[in-house]
């Protein structure tokens, strides 16, 4: 359908999982891509396999590297129309509760899952204002709406992503910028293999999710594609769950 024909889209966390699935879907719809990830080998291989894509290694916890991604988009394609801020990490397979949560883990999770989104948004909005607007999609989580014991860093960060999303949506809607967030549930990716790969974790997920299964990365990518496209032109400041009905319980 070429929904993103000639649009310039930036995707963080693009080398695997949801980010990789989004890169493939955006490319299918005609987008020109700037891909970013900490995994340089996988990121370069993905960019080389797509018709119009460049890759840059990026540690999203560093504000100057987030800004450099936008500079790359402008230098390569002349503009930035779409951003999918997707990079993130988990707290680990079975982290401790709040009282025993390591301070260094807190700093790392907040830096990569929350501060990075702020850094990216600042650079992306500044660029989009030059060309009359654009669409930004942030990866939040069902943990951005509810709490899970033992993962205070992740829960706090994802709640923060939801707040940033709404703030940017309110601040820049009049300038043609839309900013929305996705709340994935239990999705089959490398990041969730420690939980969903274990029999106990899989059984728990199947009981908790009305759909009775984990989601696939491509299903989240399709939602990101829709939010990025003109079909979602009146959707702004929204948090859209893709969780098989988990939050509906």
TrEMBL record:
GO terms for molecular function: oxidoreductase activity. The keyword Oxidoreductase applies. Keywords: Oxidoreductase. Belongs to the short-chain dehydrogenases/reductases (SDR) family. This is Short-chain dehydrogenase. It comes from Solimonas fluminis.
């Amino acid at each position: 359908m070429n929904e993103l024909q000639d649009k310039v889209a930036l995707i963080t966390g693009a080398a695997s999982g949801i980010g990789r699935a989004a890169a493939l879907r955006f490319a299918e719809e005609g987008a020109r891509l700037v891909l970013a990830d900490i995994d340089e080998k996988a990121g370069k291989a993905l960019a080389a396999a797509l018709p119009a894509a460049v890759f840059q290694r990026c540690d999203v916890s560093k504000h100057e590297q987030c800004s450099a991604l936008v500079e790359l988009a402008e230098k390569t394609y002349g503009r930035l129309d779409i951003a999918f801020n997707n990079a993130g990490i988990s707290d680990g397979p079975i982290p401790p509760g709040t009282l025993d949560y390591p301070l260094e883990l807190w700093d790392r999770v907040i830096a990569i899952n929350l501060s990075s989104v702020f850094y990216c948004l600042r650079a992306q909005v500044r660029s989009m204002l030059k060309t009359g607007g654009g669409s930004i999609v942030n990866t939040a989580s069902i943990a951005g709406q509810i709490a899970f014991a033992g993962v205070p860093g992740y829960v706090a960060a994802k709640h923060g992503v939801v707040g940033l999303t709404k703030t940017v949506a309110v601040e820049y809607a009049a300038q043609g910028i839309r900013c929305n967030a996705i709340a994935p549930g239990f999705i089959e990716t490398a990041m969730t293999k420690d939980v969903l790969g274990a029999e106990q974790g899989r059984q728990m997920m199947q009981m908790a999710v009305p759909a009775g299964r984990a989601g696939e990365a491509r299903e989240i990518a399709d939602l990101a594609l829709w939010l990025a496209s003109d079909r979602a032109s009146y959707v702004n400041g929204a948090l859209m769950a893709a969780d098989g009905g988990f939050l509906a319980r």
